[in-house]
Amino acid sequence: MAETLLDFSQVRAQFPILEQTENGHPLVYLDGGATSQKPLQVIEAIDTYYRKQNANVHRGVYGLSERATELYEGAREISRGFLNARSTKEIVFVRGTTEAINLVAHSWGRMNLQAGDEVIVTEMEHHSNIVPWQLLRDQLGIRLTVLRMNDLGEVCMNALKGLVSEKTKLLAVTHMSNALGTINPVKEMAEIAHSVGAKVLVDGAQATPHMQVDVQDLDCDFYALSGHKMYGPTGIGVLYAKEALLEVMPPYQGGGDMIYSVTFEKTEYNVLPYKFEAGTPNIAGAIGLGAAMQFMQSIGLDRIAAYEAELLAYATERLKEIEGVRIIGEAENKGGVISFVLEGVHPHDMATLMDQDGLAVRASHHCAMPVMQHFKVPATIRASLGVYNNREDIDRLVASILDAKEMLL
Prior knowledge:
Layout (H helix, E strand, L loop, with lengths): L7 H5 L8 E2 L2 E2 L1 E2 L10 H14 L9 H21 L7 E4 L2 H16 L5 E5 L8 H10 L2 E5 L9 H7 L4 E7 L11 H9 L4 E5 L11 H4 L3 E5 L10 E5 L1 H6 L10 E4 L4 E3 L13 H17 L1 H20 L4 E4 L8 E6 L4 H10 L2 E2 L1 E3 L4 H7 L4 E5 L6 H18 L1
Parallel strand pairs: 3-15, 5-6, 5-7, 7-8, 8-9
Antiparallel strand pairs: 1-2, 4-10, 9-10, 11-12, 13-14, 14-17, 16-17
Helix pairs in contact: 2-10, 3-10, 4-5, 11-14, 12-14
């Protein structure tokens, strides 16, 4: 049983929202890929900040401000350790993965890309790792090249070797697909990209809740994550970037705290990472993110990965027992996401009926329309797993699918 891999009852008890009912049924939350639920450790850290520690950071010489600054910068150090970055100078707080990618596109991209240069993305990317590069394509004349995937939802490494050239300046790739669950071999992909001098940006929004991430081992140049996917609050995330790159990149936004001195003739920018953190930051969000990372570390990232792998295997086995169910994305290396369709039923109709059974699943294109186009479906139902899910939740999922199938077909 998966529950033996961690103290499941103790872990689940940390999530108060799961004690409630939906439509008369105990809530089964299977939409962590959109946003995860939050443990008490995170909720209490945010509550304590606003109740007892609220002040602006970096600017006050009074005790309250100094303590708030210590907490905020403490969260940066927690983030550094979580990703195994070399220095806190490489940890920039942002609103989430989307802002992190846009920061790279509009700071590093505008400084380093010109007409004819190439950015490679994969066919399974989230829109937030496609649209910023399309904007640069339209404005700068760069070329956007797509690394295709097979029908299992896996990229072809040999194809990548054939795509890269001296024109390739960036490989932008998801670590784990939000629509398929595929875990890409980003370390090997980075080696291929670096062989032609290209930089590597990794979208880690889906990976960080499910596995240990070591940016030094991956040797990526940029890594982006979102707190709300990994048991933390919304509106906070991290851009990791190698210090040498951040040093020469221009600021993404201008304002307070990102400056050293300002005159009407010239502005001198602040040191890293503050050069990229204009204005009052999401202090409570950063503190909550730090608490979320500590929550995950207290369980153990390897234990989380092993637990969810067993749960995913069980869910895959049970879904394959249902006639008419087609699993979308069957890569050999997957994280805790399973997407599927039921023949003859629109995913939105099924998800609406499943809500009546107390199940929260996502029916959508998952901000990955090219994935839906590849598999020739308008949308899928996605069940995304977390540490608070167990086999009973999967059994409830299967029972609800069968009920919906009987009603709709």
